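Example record

The entry below shows one chain as it appears in the dataset: sequence first, then structure tokens.
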Amino acid sequence: MQEVPVQRQHVGGSVCLLRLLGGDGHRTVRGFLGGSLLMNCKYWHGDEMKPTFWCKLGTDSDCAADIVITSKNQSMVWRERFSIRDNHAGKLFMVTTEGLAEGDMGTYLCKVQRSTTQREESYGVKVMVSTNTSAAMR
């Protein structure tokens, strides 16, 4: 699969949408202070009942902490300004960040947890936050 960006704008309230369909490397998504980001992360057939994560990378190229995570029994989770909703039929999960702050800048991972014998599937997203609305939507 290959990464395909999808952009959507709301004039009154800021929303950036990014669809991640796999592949290597990081995608960059830009939003603006106080706005929201929505990311769709696609996963493979067979991963529908596995936990999905949104986490921020730490200094050792691994997640410093999981921000939100789903489970087999809980396909939608809210945690402070972050939510994650797993669409098992569509084989994707949507991550939302509301009230963007400068501290939200950094690299995040969309992840699917597999068994201990299988490699975890993850896709990198670099989040940039701008105070300039027109720069954020480029």
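Notes for this example: The chain has one domain: 15-136. Helices lie at 133-136.
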